[in-house]
Structures are given as structure tokens and as C-alpha cells.
């Protein structure tokens, strides 16, 4: 008895330790909201979106003129002592030059228009990556949340079985002391009790691991910030329509949209390479104003200055440079084809994923239906077994075995519902509807 108590004491402490800290209720939507707000990957994607938005302006495309201004100031101090010079002695020369310039690309094969479109596509791509990261975080959080709920339900079932076995073991101890139960039969009770306590230990560890995984996504400490999961493993059969989901995939799936934007960027790059083969026209203007003052010893100072205005047009025609531009264009066309092929591959893979998920969803519904029938049958059998046990017709171990089988069926049903949820969430991710879970 002392040996058994020593084994069970840590279990009782572990089971009740969580109650010492204040529990915070946490629903699935609240968990997803916290995870998305605190996810570093989401923050990185959001920052990259801001960078892309900052880059998307007219100046970055080269369509605006470049204006510059310069100011130069100088002062020379000299002494001349030369018989050949008409003016000897000490003199100073001070001067200042101011200049303003304007450079503008009048025509460059519409490269600035193409560049502006490229910047817009880059911003859309960054926004899509940000949306993808949010959806992936929502999926991971939902899966971790339901996994923790599943392990919690399994733990409750294991504790229920253990509690029943423990009560019967205590009763058997009393009977053994009274001499109405043999040591052999008591050993059977003890083995059953130890086995059930070990099952609770194992399931407790699985539950703690699942909660730790969820806490990692929530960026919280599970020891200092314990939570109580309020959502349960429930399901509502959904009649997925393949054609409707397929259309949603082609419209809302963020990974597919990324590939579409990538193809658009490759097409934009091809246009840019074509534009580089065309001549370009440049306009340049410069305004220069200079003043100076020279003063010789014992002579009055002399002031001077200059004013220059330069205006010009430049035409640059690419004639030949080793066919580098043509080869770049050929490479851009080939890369565009590769991007289009990858888009077609993605369509095929998404269609295959949809078929697998839809068939898997139907299989899980069938499994749940079967498990419900097993539970109903096991429940009826347990009631009969309880009557037989109370009447002394059957023994405790037979009744416990039936209870164990019922718990297994219950656990199998929960596992099937969890797998159904996994399929459903992946279907939502595939169709883009997982955004409904986002805050």
C-alpha cells in the first residue's frame, strides 16, 4: 500500500498543481488573434509590406526629373615679387560659384512606366506574402489549439478510468484485511490501478506538450500564464462543392496569387528588356552664376563675375554591345515560360490537394459515424456489465475491461473529429476561407 501511495502521490500533485494558478479562459478566435499579433514572422512580413509600399512611388520609377544645386566658395591669398610682373606685392582673390542643373529622361522606351508597374506588382506581392503568413499562423494556431483540446479530453477519460480503478482497489484492500479477498486477487487490482495511473501520467505529458506547443505560438509562458481552452471538439458536416471550392482556390488562395504575381513580374521584366533595345532621349540644362573680387596692395578692389546657361538634348541609340541586351531579353522570355509552367503545376497540385481533402473529409465523417455506433454499443454493454458486477455475476476486471474499451472508443471518436478538423482547416486554407478566423 505504501509503495502504491508513493507512486500515486506525484500524480495527484501534478493533476492539482494547475489549479493553484489563476486560469485564463481562451477561445479559438482569441488564441488566433494573440498568435497573429505576436508572431514574429507576421511582423517581418508586415514590415516588408511597408518597405514595398514605401518603394512604390513615381520617383523610384525614373519618371521624375533630377534637379541639383551646387555652391562653391573660395579665397586665394598670394604675394608676388617678380621684376617681370607689372604688379607686385600682396593681393587677395575671393570668388563664389553657384550652379543649378536639371536632368530629365524624355523617352527611354517607356521603361519608367514599366518600372512603375513593377513596383506596384512588388507591393501586391508583399501584401500577399503578409496575408499568407497571417493565414498560416491562423492554421497552425487552430491545429495546436484543437490538439490541446484533444489531449485534454483524453486526459479526462484516463483520469475517469483511474478514479474508478482506484476506488475498487481501496475496496479490495479493505476486503483483503477482512480476509474475504486473497492476496492474488488483490494483486490483480493493484496491477490494474498502477496501469491506469501510468496511463494518466503518459496522457498528462501529452497534454502538457500540446499546451506548450500552443503557448509557443501565443508567445506566452505556460507556467506563469496558464489558460483554459473553452472551445470543444465539435463538428458540423459541411457539403463541400468541388466547383465552388475550385473557383475560390483560383481567386483566394494566397500561394496561387503569389505565383500569378510572379508571372506578372516576369512578364514585366520581359517588357523591360525589350524597352532597353529602344533609343532614349535625355534633356539637360545647367545654370551657372559666378562672382569674384580681386584686390592688390595699394590698389582699389576689382569686382567681376560670369553667367552661363547650358541647354541640350541627348539621343542615345544602342547599336551593338556584344548582343548582351538581346541575350538578356531571350533569358527573360525563358524565365517567363518557366513561371507560367510553375503556375500550371500549382493548378494541378491544388486540384489534387482538393480531391484528397474532399475524399478525406468524407472518410472521416464515416469513421466518426462508426465510432459513435461503437460507443453506443459499448455504453449499453457497460450498463449490463455494471448490473452483473453489482450482482456478483462478473468480477471487477471484466467490468474494467469493458470500461477501458468504451474509453478507447471515445478516444477514437475524438481523434476522428480532430482529424476531421485538420482536414476542414486545410480546406479553408486552400480556398482562402481561413481568413474568416482572423481578427
SSE layout:
Blueprint: H1 2-17, E1 24-26, H2 28-38, H3 40-55, H4 58-61, E2 66-80, E3 89-107, H5 111-178, H6 183-218, E4 227-229, H7 242-252, H8 254-275, E5 280-296, E6 302-316, H9 324-391, H10 396-431
Parallel strand pairs: 1-4
Antiparallel strand pairs: 2-3, 3-5, 5-6
Helix pairs in contact: 1-6, 2-5, 3-5, 5-6, 5-8, 5-10, 7-9, 8-9, 9-10
Tags for this entry?
single chain, about 450 residues, alpha+beta, Outer membrane efflux proteins (OEP), four-stranded antiparallel sheet, two-stranded parallel sheet, elongated
Describe the protein's architecture and organization.
The protein is α+β, with helices and mostly antiparallel strands. It has 2 domains: 24-62 and 109-143 and 233-279 and 321-437, Outer membrane efflux proteins (OEP) (Up-down Bundle); 65-107 and 280-316, Outer membrane efflux proteins (OEP) (Single Sheet), CATH 2.20.200. The chain is 66% helix and 16% strand. The protein has helices spanning 2-17, 28-38, 40-55, 58-61, 111-178, 183-218, 242-252, 254-275, 324-391, 396-431, and strands at residues 24-26, 66-80, 89-107, 227-229, 280-296, 302-316. A 4-stranded antiparallel sheet has the order 2-3-5-6, with no helix packed on it. Strands 1-4 form a two-stranded parallel sheet. Helix 2 (28-38) packs across helix 5, helix 3 (40-55) runs antiparallel to helix 5 and helix 7 (242-252) crosses helix 9. It is elongated.
Amino acid at each position: 500500500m505504501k509503495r502504491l501511495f508513493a507512486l500515486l502521490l506525484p500524480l495527484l500533485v501534478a493533476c492539482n498543481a494547475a489549479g493553484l494558478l489563476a486560469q485564463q479562459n481562451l477561445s479559438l478566435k482569441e488564441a488566433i488573434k494573440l498568435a497573429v499579433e505576436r508572431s514574429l514572422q507576421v511582423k517581418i512580413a508586415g514590415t516588408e509590406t511597408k518597405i514595398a509600399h514605401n518603394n512604390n512611388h513615381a520617383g523610384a520609377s525614373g519618371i521624375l526629373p533630377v534637379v541639383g544645386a551646387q555652391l562653391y566658395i573660395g579665397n586665394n591669398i598670394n604675394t608676388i615679387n617678380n621684376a617681370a610682373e607689372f604688379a607686385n606685392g600682396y593681393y587677395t582673390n575671393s570668388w563664389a560659384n553657384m550652379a543649378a542643373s536639371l536632368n530629365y529622361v524624355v523617352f527611354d522606351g517607356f521603361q519608367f512606366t514599366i518600372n512603375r508597374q513593377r513596383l506596384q506588382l512588388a507591393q501586391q506581392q508583399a501584401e500577399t506574402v503578409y496575408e499568407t503568413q497571417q493565414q498560416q499562423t491562423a492554421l497552425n494556431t487552430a491545429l495546436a489549439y484543437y490538439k490541446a483540446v484533444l489531449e485534454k479530453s483524453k486526459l479526462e477519460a484516463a483520469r475517469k478510468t483511474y478514479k474508478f480503478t482506484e476506488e475498487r482497489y481501496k475496496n479490495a484492500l479493505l476486503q483483503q484485511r477482512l480476509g474475504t479477498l486473497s492476496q492474488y486477487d488483490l494483486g490483480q487490482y493493484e496491477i490494474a490501478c498502477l496501469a491506469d495511473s501510468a496511463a494518466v501520467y503518459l496522457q498528462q505529458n501529452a497534454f502538457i506538450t500540446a499546451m506548450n506547443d500552443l503557448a509557443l505560438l501565443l508567445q506566452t509562458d505556460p507556467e506563469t500564464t496558464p489558460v483554459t481552452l473553452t472551445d470543444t471538439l465539435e463538428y458540423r458536416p459541411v457539403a463541400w462543392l468541388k466547383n465552388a471550392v475550385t473557383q475560390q482556390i483560383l481567386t483566394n488562395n494566397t500561394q496561387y496569387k503569389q505565383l500569378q504575381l510572379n508571372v506578372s513580374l516576369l512578364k514585366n521584366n520581359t517588357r523591360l528588356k525589350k524597352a532597353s533595345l529602344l533609343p532614349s532621349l535625355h534633356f539637360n540644362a545647367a545654370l551657372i552664376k559666378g562672382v569674384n573680387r580681386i584686390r592688390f596692395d595699394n590698389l582699389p578692389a576689382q569686382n567681376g563675375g560670369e553667367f552661363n546657361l547650358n541647354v541640350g538634348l541627348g539621343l542615345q541609340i544602342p547599336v551593338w554591345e556584344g548582343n548582351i541586351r538581346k541575350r538578356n531579353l531571350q533569358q527573360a522570355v525563358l524565365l517567363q515560360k518557366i513561371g507560367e509552367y510553375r503556375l500550371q503545376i500549382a493548378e494541378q497540385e491544388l486540384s489534387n490537394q482538393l480531391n484528397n481533402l474532399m475524399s478525406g473529409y468524407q472518410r472521416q465523417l464515416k469513421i466518426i459515424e462508426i465510432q459513435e455506433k461503437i460507443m453506443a454499443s459499448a455504453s449499453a454493454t457497460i450498463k449490463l456489465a455494471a448490473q452483473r458486477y453489482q450482482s456478483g455475476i462478473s468480477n471487477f476486471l471484466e467490468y474494467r475491461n469493458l470500461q477501458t474499451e468504451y474509453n478507447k472508443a471515445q478516444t477514437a471518436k475524438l481523434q476522428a473529429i480532430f482529424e476531421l478538423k485538420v482536414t476542414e482547416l486545410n480546406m479553408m486554407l486552400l480556398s482562402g476561407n481561413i481568413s474568416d478566423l482572423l481578427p
